[in-house]
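Troubleshooting log. The previous structure file for this entry was overwritten by mistake, so regenerating from the original sequence record. Sequence copied from the archived sheet and checked twice against the printout by T.R.
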Amino acid sequence: MKNLIDAAMGKIKPQKVLKGGNVVNVFSGKVEKTDVAIMDGRIVGLGEYDGIVNIDVSGKYIIPGLIDTHLHIESTMLTPAEFFKAIIPYGTTTVIADPHEIANVLGVDGVKYMIHQSIGLPINAHFMLPSCVPATFFESAGAVIDAKLTKKHIGDKDIFGLGEFMNFVGVINGAEECIGKLTAAHDEGKIIDGHAPNLTGKELNAYVAAGIKTEHECTTVEDMQNKIDRGMYIQLRQGSATRNVETLVKGITAQNMRRCVFCTDDRHIDSLLYEGHLNYNLKVAVENGLDPISAITIATLNAAECYGLKGYGAIAPGYVADIVVMNDLKNFVADKVFFKGELVAQDGKAIFNATPKFDKSVLNSVRLKDVKPQDFEIYSKSDKVNAIQLIPANVVTKKAVVKVARSQDNSVVIQGTDLLKLAVVERHNNTGNIGKGLILNYGLKNGAIAQTVAHDSHNIIVLGDNNEDMAIAVNGLKELGGGLIVVSNGKILGSLKLEVAGLMTAEPIEKVNKQFQSMIKLAHSLGVNPDVEPFMTLSFLALPVIPYLKLTDKGLFDVSKFEFVGLEA
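Regenerated output below.
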């Protein structure tokens, strides 16, 4: 403390001084040309200072480290070490991560893996305990985190809060399991994240009364304002598939701005490389009319206050020296990034070591017997069947009724049609479950595509136009230990290994992205609709909480009715 005070007074030299930059003051909204003095990882003063080390940042802008308030690291297919190595050079110095993807495969052990992998890296990584594992009981997940387990672990010192509460129906109806989880979080004084699109009226009142503080699913200004009116913080999301910043910034006013924060939610590997991370939220917001100082305040001070991160989110005496030096306040390209006063990234490159720690407990997560081609035969007693119809560039699907030809044994014939077979194969506990259905508008010919990334339970999802290639693809994933695979005419054309829970790999981001882009090209070469991102689209077809028709390992699921439906229409 005396060092901090003496350095602030100029009695001793601060360890570092950023000289001549333009400091963005998120308290007053001003931009001030001044030095920034740093001592023992803290900012000690603004004004004229001479440090032991002086760093010239003349003409550049000094802002607080960016805070991503909600994300799923697993969506990038990178382990935490490689993920943080990718995002820190963009200026993100704090994340609130919800590891519910790996939790659906490995339970609490998966959450602990993510936490342990993040220790020692130059980022404030806070991990939530997932609230919805599984997301529904209409599918087979690899684990269950119930109210009893929530109560056991929510108080752990490395658990920051309770992750997005997707089961808003259970909350507003007072379901016992939901009440148990919410109460456990309240008892430990932990924050609870929300997920309740378009909830209004008394249902919204009930959801907020349960102590749920944030919402990242707003897609309209009206929904955003309704929830701000009830005291929630709105997380303006700019992911890869779900991009809401452009719309929502139009609803930001001087009166409600302080209840807004930014998040990325699900950001894929190519988006990270080519667009950026949370800095991209700022860029999009400013391009769509938001004042740059307001955008920075939303990404820093607002986020810190929302999550109770004392000493973060501002450039001011006593605050932690998580600092980003930006080239400008339009494109938000980071020149330098400091974490607790130490330079950790420069010119878009990380300058710290980030080696993933080996952990065999997250490997070999694909557990099933070899499948046979006949396992993918689909039978119908009717020539009219229900099919999943894709909508390009959308995770929502339509429920279509199509007429099909059948063989003598009532097996559905898809040759010569636009239909493909779709299957979800349980891969966690070797139950033998295979849910089967039909899909339109994907476009694949003479092959099959399969992956172990299938939200949120992450069983194997496979589609194809013939049983043989589908069986080769699924058995290939078992051999691979998880990942993505493309098969055609009985041969594996390409694969991307995701050895960690079938969701992530410890390989460097550049190598992973190169393989991933190659896989996308392979899929499109087999006739996949050019408007369809093959693997991301496939991953959401097993999620029975997004309308309208989806497929789990237990069968076709009508989300609008919230019940299973038969193949026959």
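The longest strand covers residues 16-24. Archived copy saved in two places this time.
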